[in-house]
């Protein structure tokens, strides 16, 4: 029988390695603790289970959500509950922006199911279920998003293994929501097509090198060179055609207002921009300039 259970998981921002991680399997990603999703599972009378989420305007029987939310449908119907239930989601992670909303939702769901149904799944089993849900959502998923939303430190993801980087960089990261929906599934498939050609492969190799450089520069706390690496990564992501004119505009704005370097983060085609700032004051200046330039929201993280 199902008992009431609640679980919360936070969002993430990829520092570098989006797309190349699908092939090369290395990337760096940052958990964002202030952005999170909570799921509450409650037993209800009757035979029909429901899902409710105010921020995506969803209030429907779970049996009807497969086409739009294949990962959630899979998780919420995979285990025999012998009891109708309501799954209620509360989230402040904007969806389809590369901030890990889908990964956090998948992971919170399996964590809550694990409690509600006393499944006794290990941590690895829970992340495997969440990764499968992500594959259903996005086509092919590297596992990076799930690996980051269940951690509380900077993650260096290397072929499914996570190395944690405790050291801080001593800088600030401005995260700006472009207001344009990203589309990870489409972006991943666009890059996959290009990866068939030698030029596409060369772009992925370039990104892989930039991931390596980022890790080394972070450890040396060389924020100036790291900014240059961010800009280089953005150039490659643009060549791979996963940027967007509004993202390009926000990056330009951040860079002329004192950012050391900026790039898109996540699948792209919309979503968020991340921008490196030397100190909190510059971060505030960049954040204000980005809002004036049309960013829907901004967050500042000390890194
Ligand atoms: C674009 C991508 O690299 C990141 C999406 O947040 C896809 C993935 O890692 O599965």
Describe the structure in your own words:
This is Mevalonate kinase. The protein is of the alpha+beta class and 303 residues long. The chain folds into 2 domains: 5-164, Ribosomal Protein S5, domain 2, CATH 3.30.230; 167-302, Alpha-Beta Plaits, CATH 3.30.70.890. 42% of the residues lie in helices and 26% in strands. The protein contains 10 helices and 11 strands. Helix 3 crosses helix 4 (123-138). The longest helix is centred in the last third of the chain and has 23 residues, at 198-220. It binds (R)-mevalonate.
Helix content: 40-55%
Amount of beta strand: 25-35%
The biggest beta sheet reads: 7 strands, mixed
Quaternary structure state of the chains depicted: single chain
DSSP strand count: 11
Ligand inventory reads:
(R)-mevalonate
Gyration radius, in Å: 19 Å
The pLDDT mean sits at: 96
- Quickly count the helices: 10
Distance between the termini: 44 Å
CATH class (first level) name of the largest domain:
Alpha Beta
Stretches where pLDDT is under 50 for at least 5 consecutive residues are: none
- According to CATH, the fold-level topology of the largest domain is Ribosomal Protein S5, domain 2
* Secondary-structure element series: EHEEEHEHHHEEEHHHHEEHE
> What is the name of the CATH architecture of the largest domain?
2-Layer Sandwich
User: Would you tell me the structural class of the helices and strands?
Assistant: alpha+beta
Q: What is the 3D shape?
A: globular
Kindly give the count of domains: 2
